[in-house]
Amino acid sequence: MKIYKAYAKVNIFLKIRGKRENYHEIVSRFMRVNSLFDELSFVPKQEKKFEIIGDFSCKTEQNTIYKAYLALKAATASEVLEEFMATHAVYVKKQIPAFAGLGGGSSDAATYLKMCNETLNLGLSLDELANIGLKVGADVPFFIYNYESANVSGIGEVVEEFVEEILDFEIFTPKLEISTPKVYGIYRDNFYNPISEAEADMLKRRGSLEILENMSAKEANDLFEPALQGYAELKNQYKDGWHFSGSGSSFFRSADKIYKQAGEIR
User: Fold this and answer.
1) What pTM does this model have?
2) In angstroms, rounded to a whole number, what is the distance separating the alpha carbons of residues 186 and 183?
3) Collapsing DSSP states into helix, strand and coil, what is residue 8?
4) Torsion angle, CA of 81/55/250/266, rounded to 10 degrees?
5) What is the mean pLDDT of residues 70-86?
6) What's the rounded Cα separation, in Å, for the pair 140 and 134?
7) 203-225: per-residue pLDDT in tens?
8) Helix, strand, or coil (residue 152)
9) Residue 101 in contact with residue 223, Cβ under 8 Å?
10) DSSP per-residue codes, 12-52
11) Mind listing the domains of the chain with CATH numbers?
12) Which residues are catalytic?
């Protein structure tokens, strides 16, 4: 069976633009991490129930892959999909840490949707897959489009490719499970201060390396301070010069910047 890669991402910047019902509208630069990915494939199985094989701490019903299956089934009413998943399990070689701000669950869900579309000849466009994926999670559309770098806005449904040199990253993930809803709740209660449209447009035009070199973790990510407030142990993990991805817990820095500081020529 074919093996599909589900890549991680980092948020070069993540700023809040406002609210939409129970959601926060964001403007963010997502960049794919080419060195970190899960591997997904379909494998034959005996039992008819939906099955995911892999190192997951959650139940199948809570897994984003299963949620993607339900969303795809609801959108297509495909008998071929149901028949295929009755005879095949999803095997996942898990390498992206969970609850880490690296988009592992969303990437797995997006990759599963594309696997089904290709394997079963469902004929769905990327836009259609992205709309289905948005029902699973706000980050899923980014992974559907497979851009290496993109400006993501709205509640995740607006994904605009940003053409630039892709960076290499050093990533550090503390052994700490962070709840994204909790961090957003703390932001809303104690830090709510949306940026203007002009500020958002300016950020969307700046290159990622420039942003990392000129903005601190606090300046680049509106969720960093709320995460520190909600998880005091994060303060002991933070090091100057590192940035914070999503709602955490992962920190990252550009290897390109490290090479420059060392005076090396790449």
Assistant:
1) 0.92
2) 5
3) strand
4) -80
5) 97
6) 6
7) 999 999 999 999 999 999 999 99
8) strand
9) no
10) EEEEEEEEETTEEEEEEEEEEEEEEEEEEEEEE-SSSS--E
11) 4-161 (3.30.230.10), 169-261 (3.30.70)
12) 9, 139
